[in-house]
Design goal:
elongated, Double Stranded RNA Binding Domain, single chain, alpha+beta, about 200 residues, three-stranded antiparallel β-sheet
Length: about 200
């Protein structure tokens, strides 16, 4: 599945929270693979990170809270920062703007499971979409062809979700979600600069 963590219109602390929460989730779910991101103005901060996982992470959808005093504004009383986590619906249809005329496809060496086969072949694929500047990568498959197809599928899903390719270029909810964030009942609460989990929703298996 494809998901997005977004700070939306939040301040710099929310963009720091996006980066910290992504790293925490990556430790919890090692198969998470970053697809693309929009970096913030300070190191390790992001207004948006879009990632994929083979796990069902639907229980993470909703608002997440980070409790930490701001080091960017000393003396500032606020210490609760909120970000949104949303699911980007996948699609088998290739977006009409994804064509050889407006994308570049690069291959690069990607690490394998270990041993003698690591970094032996250039199976990783990176696709850049000229009209939007969005870059997606795929290293999940061993075959460069399969990674190319996977990257195109991810790019198409992102373009469809955010509606960037539409003629009127309206902002889709996946990119302006922060304005609708419900702060009363976060699905996760992280605390401190190490982003330790203070609260999480228990999912029945």
């Amino acid at each position: 599945m494809i998901m997005q963590i977004s700070s939306g219109i939040g301040p710099v602390e929310c963009r720091v929270a996006v980066g910290g929460i992504y790293r925490a989730l990556k430790k919890e779910y090692p198969d998470i693979e970053q697809i693309t991101c929009n970096k913030g103005e300070v190191p390790d901060s992001y207004s948006s990170i879009i990632f994929s996982s083979d796990n069902n992470l639907s229980h993470l959808q909703g608002t997440m809270e980070w409790i930490c005093k701001s080091k960017y504004r000393p003396g500032h009383k606020r210490k609760n920062w909120y970000v949104d986590v949303s699911i980007i619906p996948e699609t088998d249809e290739v977006d009409e703007t994804v064509s050889p005329d407006n994308i570049t496809i690069e291959s690069y060496r990607s690490g394998g499971p270990g041993g003698q086969y690591v970094n032996k072949t250039e199976s990783g694929v990176r696709i850049t979409h000229f009209p939007t500047g969005i870059t997606v990568t795929s290293t999940r498959e061993r075959s460069q062809f399969m990674n190319k197809q996977d990257a195109i599928k991810k790019l198409s899903a992102i373009l469809k979700s955010v509606n960037i390719a539409s003629k009127d270029k309206q902002k889709n909810a996946a990119w302006s979600k922060h304005a609708q964030i419900q702060r009363g009942n976060p699905v996760r609460v992280y605390e401190g600069e190490k982003f330790a989990v203070k609260k999480r929703i228990v999912v029945d298996k």
